[in-house]
Amino acid sequence: MAQTEQGKGIALGSASLRAMLEALPSPVMLIDGKDRIIAANAAFCALVGHDRDYWLATPMEACLPPDRVRRYRAAHAQVLSTGEDLESEDTIDGHDGLPRHVVTRRRRVELDGEALVLTILTDVTALRNAEARARHLAFHDALTGLPNRAALNEQLAAALSACPPEQPALLLIDLYQFKDINDAFGECTGDALLRAFADRLAGTARGSDQVARTGGDTFALLIADCPDVAAAEAECRRALAMAALPIASPAGAVALGVSIGCAGAEPGMTPEDLHRRAEFALYEAKQLPANEFRLFDAALAADVQARRALETDLRAALAAGDQLDVHYQPVIDASGHRVVGVEALVRWHHPTQGMIPPVRFIPIAEASGLIVPLGEWVLDRAAAMMARFPEISLAVNLSPIQLRSPQIASRILAILARHDMNPRQLQLEVTESAMLAMDVGVEQGMLRLREAGVQLVLDDFGTGYSSLSHLHKLAIDRVKIDQSFVRDLGSSHDARAIIQAVLGIGQSLGIGVTAEGVEDETQQLFLRAFGCHEFQGYLFSRPLPAGEAAAFLESHAARQAA
After folding, report:
1. Is the Cβ–Cβ distance between 370 and 311 less than 8 Å?
2. What does the pLDDT look like over 425-437, one tens digit per residue?
3. What is the distance between the alpha carbons of residues 274 and 276, in angstroms, rounded to a whole number?
4. 173 three-state secondary structure
5. Is the per-residue pLDDT at 355 higher than 80?
6. Number of other CB atoms surrounding residue 230 within 10 Å
7. Which of 93, 338, 381, 539 could form a disulfide with 333 if both were Cys (CB 3.0 to 4.6 A apart)?
8. How far apart are CA 44 and CA 26, in angstroms?
């Protein structure tokens, strides 16, 4: 046997092998069948501290907690006995005593006739910290520090899981005609008032209550237990009394009016059900003068009836096919001149109500299941057109309902084949909440589409929460920064921080990033400076009907050829 390092353990072999280990940038060590470290490179020592002699001379049980020793020994035994690679993520103590997140990859190797475990560490601390920062920013309102709508949805889900016996209620509190206050005193004063109101609301809430900011001038108060109408009315009056007290501001004391909508939970409700009922009640309250409240009751069921009528009309529109249309909004590269893609957006021309915005009928389509045939209709129309422009990507949105359809992959690929469209041209946009809700069957369908060449895009990134493990698992090709962050880019430090965090994650993982809602050149300049290379918004083009979009793309192709 050749001489070992420090005369211990199994021979390392040639000097060239030692030199190769030392040259590797990743922390690497070799472990023998008795769980002894017999080689460690400089990168390993730099990560965990101490010199090489310490690690070669010190048994695991002398420097690691017992539970970690047990896990490591079990991992080494598994790799040596099966010969299969093993990968895990762990938290270790770094050279500075601070925790480091590492991905550990173990592989069996043969050296001088002995079976060893080659262990390579990858420090992912920066990525995990970025993920934690993104999660915090995504679940908290930048201006007030309160939980935001995404956080409220989690709180609602937890509260509803306790119903019964608890009977939670949701109050939505809207600052009455707050735009007029902003116009009169300026946005700085308006922001100061919002922060002061948020502090007051949080300060008067009881320990079991939850407070959130769900919109520009709308706040939520989740009451843990509100057993009857009388209790709900008492909570609304308590909130009105709190809001009636003047708030000090740079412009002097300001009295804010509010409108309140309240809805009580019932067994079997979802967070969306409760929030929607509270929104119905708030809508009614906002039709009244300031400092009024409304409770959801049977009278508001008329709205439900209207939604059902709209569902019937949508079903008929899908069957006829002559009321629906697909518009296309271009996606532009960093130069601001080259079209790299389009997003397909459905439009509905109702025969009696005129143009119905998607925000009205898409939720109805999702709730009724019509979103599946509607989504296929949109893709069919869009593929028929975009097959003529093979260099331009086509993005279509997939709802959570569509994702859960067992034949989603087969149907999408069949539509593409029918129009002779290359699957690599298609981008499927899914939201963060939809991605988090994916089960094994859905993931398999998405992976089948990925194998066919279809790209996956994470839409509205930053408004919810997705772990980096999901981005890795589904091999997400691109993320889209939500337009709410782009809109606040010039005035909000937190919006810039979120955008920079998203772009940093994209660069670290090799994932493309597109910014939505770009409406002026200042936003484009900011985004380009941050490293964003694809833009979508009214600065470049509104969504265009099929005929106009085709002419736009043909003209663009002619200019590029020239």
Report:
1. yes
2. 999 998 876 776 5
3. 5
4. strand
5. yes
6. 9
7. 338
8. 7
- Sorted by sequence, the CB contacts under 8 Å of residue 65 that are 6+ apart come out as none
Helix, coil or strand: residue 493:
helix
Using alpha carbons, select from 502, 520, 522 the residue that is nearest to residue 511.
502
Of the candidates 552, 529, 524, 560, the residue with the CA atom closest to the CA atom of residue 539 = 524
What was the pLDDT predicted at 317? 95
Distance CA 331, CA 46 (A): 45
| Per-residue 3-state assignment (H helix, E strand, C coil) for 319-351 | HHCCCEEEEEEEEEECCCCCEEEEEEEEEEEEC
Which three-class secondary structure state does DSSP give residue 430?
Answer: strand
> Which residue shows structure tokens 């249309």?
325
**Euclidean distance between CA atoms 397 and 408, whole angstroms:** 13
Confidence of residue 356 (pLDDT cuts 50, 70, 90): very high
Q: How would residue 367 be classed by pLDDT, with cut points 50, 70 and 90?
A: confident
Q: How far apart are CA 274 and CA 24, in angstroms?
A: 56
Residues 346, 381: Cα–Cα separation, whole Å? 10
How many angstroms separate the CA atoms of 256 and 241, rounded? 11
pTM of the predicted model, to two decimals? 0.52
pLDDT at 544: 96
Residue whose entry in the numeric block shows the structure tokens 């925000």: 359
